[in-house]
Amino acid sequence: MNLLELRAIDKSYRRGGWFGNRDRVQVLKKVSLTLGEGACLGLLGRNGSGKSTLSRIALGLEPPDSGQVLFQGRELAGLGRRESALTRKDLQVVFQNSLGSVNPRMTAGQVVAEPICNFESVTKSVLRRRVGRLLEMVGLQASDAEKLPHQFSGGQLQRVCIARAIALKPRVIILDEAVSSLDMVVQTRILDLLAGLRRELGTSYLFISHDIRIILRMADSLAVLHEGEIVGYAEGMEKVGTIQHPLFTALMDAVLHPLPAGMRAVSDSPA
Ligand SMILES: Nc1ncnc2c1ncn2[C@@H]1O[C@H](COP(=O)(O)OP(=O)(O)O)[C@@H](O)[C@H]1O
Ligand SMILES: [Mg+2]
Fold first, then answer.
1. Rounded to the nearest whole angstrom, what is the distance from the C-alpha of residue 107 to the centroid of ligand 1?
2. What are 232-264's pLDDT values in tens digits?
3. How far, in Å, is the centroid of ligand 2 from the Cα of 211?
4. What is the whole-number distance in angstroms between the Cα of residue 36 and the centre of ligand 2?
5. CA angle at residue 219 from 203 to 60, to 5 degrees?
6. Tens of pLDDT along 19-37?
7. Which domain holds residue 230?
8. What domain count does the chain have?
9. Distance CA 82, CA 88 (A)
10. What CATH number is associated with residue 112?
11. pTM of the model
């Protein structure tokens, strides 16, 4: 079954804010996507192509102008309060800027505990144990629960946000540039962590990034978003070669020739 399905989503914003003219900018144009059970769909697009708008609409945080968002076969817009709360339990998100998406006065433990407390009634000691275990699952220590957001590095705080996102074992996590602001070493560790969690929990990912290397590494199918339109799609990464859009072929060329002429990758060197 398709867990998350976007059908012909249109979205426009008024240009120039409050005092601007009434022109509207079409940010998403008839975007359709489906995310299946256990899948990792990569959404590749340059900055400003509409990726975050799409993720907000998929999460039900903003309505589309037209089109439908279906989660587990049911339209988000038609759900009552209780049902939409239950949907939120199964549909989580990790944004790029974790410092901006957590309350600076809450400890990491409170951040991770929040979704659990919203949906379950657990005793304090059970909650503490679960939070500790979640922090350990993302490579932090249970004692980190006492720390405030500013006491973590960017990569550590991103791990806290991942722990929060997996706390309720959601069926889908939308990762919107979730590792983009981290250095490559931390990026690789967090991508490995996400891949491991996917294997362990069977969660589906909508993996959004402007970075084709990350998408190629993580995704098992790929959609290319360009100026609000899906301009390429490959069901299965072995088919990415069939995507002909110039933006995509230019990006592929760039990753296929990552080293200056004459320089060898470390893995090519004799051991
Ligand atoms: N709330 C908003 N009001 C007006 N314009 C917006 C709003 N949100 C996004 N946009 C515009 O929509 C376009 C796509 O933005 P965004 O979805 O953030 O792209 P991406 O995440 O791919 O960088 C940009 O031109 C941006 O300025
Ligand atoms: Mg964005």
1. 31
2. 999 999 999 899 999 999 888 888 776 776 776
3. 12
4. 23
5. 55
6. 655 688 999 999 999 999 9
7. 2-255
8. 1
9. 10
10. 3.40.50.300
11. 0.91
